[in-house]
Every structure is written in structure tokens, then in C-alpha cells.
Amino acid sequence: MQLTINDKAYTSSKTINVLNPLTQEVVAEVPFGGREEAEAAVKAASEAYVPWSRKTADARADLMMKWHDNLLEEEDKIAEVMTKEQGKPFKEAKGEVRYAASFIRWYAEEARRIKGETIPASSADKKIVIQPQPIGVVAAITPWNFPAAMITRKAAPALAAGCTIVIKPAEQTPLTAWLLKEAADKAGIPSGVIEVVVGEPAVIGETWMKSPLVKKVTFTGSTPVGKLLMSQAAETVKKVSLELGGNAPFIVFKDANLEKAVQGVIQSKFRNAGQTCVCTNRVYVQEEIMEAFTQKLKEKVEGLLVGDGFEENTDIGPLINEEALVKTEKHIEQALKEGASLVTGGARLTEGSPLFKPTVLSGVTDNMSCMQQETFAPLAPIAAFKNEEEVITRANQSPFGLAAYIFTESLSTAWRTAEALEYGIVGINDGLPSAAQAPFGGMKESGIGREGGTEGLYEFLETKYMSFSI
Ligand code: ADP
């Protein structure tokens, strides 16, 4: 793989090793840039901006579709690299490549439908015209949990809108990002339209946030880093989109279809080893069905296979690093000490292993750390609730508001609860609500703005009002 910035070979005096989280083997040694590389990327994106934004929507869409096709053609190759550097099961990695490509396709189609409007003026000699225009050069900073999709979810609407983009992927998963860039280059997307820089996070972030050439920042990651970027962006009043942490409640009412509800927990909690920002973090079950639900969940969870992502039947791969494993152990230990019971799992597969057994705890209370903080691991803590009003209050008692899940067969309960939850995404009898055409994002400290759907496109467009006197 030839790494480039503005078509020049990307080398750096500093390098880092990309590690396989399962084996700790070195997957690759990659250049680890800083200010110089960050500036070079912005310069390239800035030079590419005018020609790219002036292309017809058709021309941009055609190039994007080639990029999309290249990703699908290289699905196996990209997925293999993703499993190596991130650990997720190969079948999930392939699913992510398709999911990532779906954003490019949807926004390529949507590029042709960016429309303005005219508004009747107050005097006969005036015309009011509204025209959306690309915002300019965009800086994107992305996490390791979805190394492909978090990039295309930002780059595809940016490109469709006519913006160019500089991307800093997480240092744990730079190789997938480079493969995406390579596929874009092969598609004929001009140099500078997408630039990827791997390197010192704080230095690159600060360089981009200070640059007057960067007009917008779009970030997915932790809440503290999101807050930092937002404050740095204030200096030049950059537009900001943030997709930050969550603490998703999963509410099972007594009239729920238990089969569906258990399946919902499996999908929303144990996918990607519990390392997604919309992962269920707290399971609330109405007390009448607690025993039946817990038993069913236990059986399903015990059927999940933990292991090497390259083995066909693996459902759960390793956690990203030792810190993540220690946090999980602490959450479990504290909960057990404070009165919770272990239903299944509770430890690493073997001592010192990066693989963690899928775990269910019951008898959990809201003050325990596993209910207050995002565990980001295959741990499902279950707490009992009595009625709708109480569970809504408890679910909303969080500074976060990204995703929530409700399982019930009653339309009225579903409607009332979904409306009352202070969450940007609500899955109703659905544990997998993400889709390219839907606006994804959080309320409260979970973020600003939306990704996906028409809303996700308008994050990269400015509204220009032109007033004509004729
Ligand atoms: P996580 O804890 O999931 O790794 P982070 O918020 O630390 O979440 O990481 C998400 C992305 O933010 C990564 O690309 C990471 O390198 C980047 N990042 C971390 N610290 C900073 C920073 N100070 N400035 C800019 N980006 C940062």
C-alpha cells in the first residue's frame, strides 16, 4: 500500500505499530505524522476544493459510485485488514464494508437532489432565492470501533455536497482508512478531495482546529475529546458535528415478545463485542417477566462463541486493548460487591486473554458504575422496574441521549415511551436501527448534528440567501 498526502509519498520520522488486539502481533508499522502532515493535507484539500465543488452533481456522483463499487469489489481484502487491526469477526467486518459502502451509494444518489427554493418577496421588484452551497474543507476525526463506516458516513455526504475532507482515523485502525482512500484514488476521485493523516491525535486535532482553511469539524469518539474539539473550533467558529458517548437503556415491558426482546439484546449489546456507541448499556425489565427474560437471555448468551475473528463461527472477538478489559472487570467486580448476581460469564476466556466472556448480571441498581458509565464491552446488566413512568424517568437520568430501545407489543406504550425518551434514536422492537438513509445522532451530551439521511447531507451545506432587486 503506497501511503500519500497530496500525491506525495507519506513518510514520517516517527512511526507506530498497528497491533492485532487478539495476538498482539504487529500488523504493520505506519508513519505517525504531526503538524507538518496535518498542514499538508489541509493545503491539498483546500486546493482541491474549488474544482471539486464546481463539478456537476452528476460528475461527483459518478465518481462516488465508482468508489462504492471498488469497496464492494475489495470487500474481503478490507474486511481481512479490519479483523486484523480491530478484532471484530470477519463476517461482521464484511458487513461493515457493505454498510460503509451504503453511505457512499446513498449520498451519491442524493448529490443530484440538493435543491434550493424561492420565497415570495414583500415587494414586486424583489426575488428571494435560497441556494445551498458546500461549506468548504472538512476535518473528520474517527474512532476505531467502525474503522470503515465512521469514515464513509462523514466523507460521503461531504463529497456529495461538494466539500473536500481531511480525515484522521484512530491510531488503532489506520489501515482500513488507507484502503478506503486507495479505493477512492482508484475510482478517480481527484487528489486532495480525500486526504488521510495518521498521527499524534492532539497535534493533528489542534492544527486542524486552528486552521482558518478548515470550515467544519465532524467527530465520532469520546465525550471529553468532543468537548475539547468543540472548544477549539470556537476560535474560528467552525461548524461542528459530534457523535459522542451513549448510555443506551433497553426497556422490556411485560407484554413484549420475549424471543424478539432477547434477540434485540444480542444484536444491540453483543455486536462488535459490545464496542459500539449505540450498544445497550442498561437493560430494564418489568418485574413480572424478570425471571423468564433472564433465563432466555442466559441461554442465548451462552450460545455465543468468543474467539478468533477469522474462525467462521466466532460471534465475539477480542476487546480493543487491556484498558478496556480492566474497565469491564472493574464494572463487574463493583456490581457484584454492591449486591448484583452473576447470571453468566463474568471473566476473560482464560487468564490474561483479550477475549471476554459475554456476561449478564442481574439485580443491578442504577447507582452502580456499569449503569452510570458506558462499559463498551460484552456486559449486559439487568435491573427491574415496576411501571412505565418510573422506567422513563430512570432511562432519562443520564447526561447522554444517543440510542434507546423499547420492546413491547402495545402500540400505545411504544408511542408514549418513544416520545418521552430523551434520545436521538429509539429502536422499537428493533435492536439494529442504524441505516444510511436515517438521521443518526444524539441529544444532550451525546452530540450535535446528525449523520445519515438528508439531515446528514445538510451538515455539509451552508444556506445562501440571495436577494435580487429586478
Ligand atoms: P476512544 O476512547 O474510543 O478511543 P477517543 O475520543 O479517544 O475515543 O478517540 C476517537 C478519535 O479521537 C481517535 O481518532 C483519536 O485519535 C482522536 N483523539 C483523541 N484525542 C484527541 C485530541 N486531543 N484531539 C483530537 N483528536 C483526538
From TrEMBL:
InterPro entries from the xrefs? Ald_DH/histidinol_DH, Ald_DH_C, Ald_DH_CS_CYS, Ald_DH_CS_GLU, Ald_DH_N, Aldehyde_DH_dom, Aldehyde_DH_NAD(P), Aldehyde_DH_Superfamily
Its BP terms in the Gene Ontology are: aldehyde metabolic process; gamma-aminobutyric acid catabolic process
GO molecular function annotations of the record: succinate-semialdehyde dehydrogenase (NAD+) activity
Keyword flag Oxidoreductase: yes
UniProt keywords (A-Z) are: Oxidoreductase
Q: Which SUPFAM superfamilies match?
A: ALDH-like
Which residues carry out catalysis? 243, 277
Q: Pinpoint the Aldehyde dehydrogenase domain residues.
A: 12-465
Per the record, the domain of life is Bacteria
State the family it belongs to. Answer: Belongs to the aldehyde dehydrogenase family.
What the entry lists under PANTHER family is as follows: SUCCINATE-SEMIALDEHYDE DEHYDROGENASE, MITOCHONDRIAL (PTHR43353:SF5)
Q: What is this protein's name?
A: Aldehyde dehydrogenase
Q: Which organism is it from?
A: Alkalicoccus halolimnae
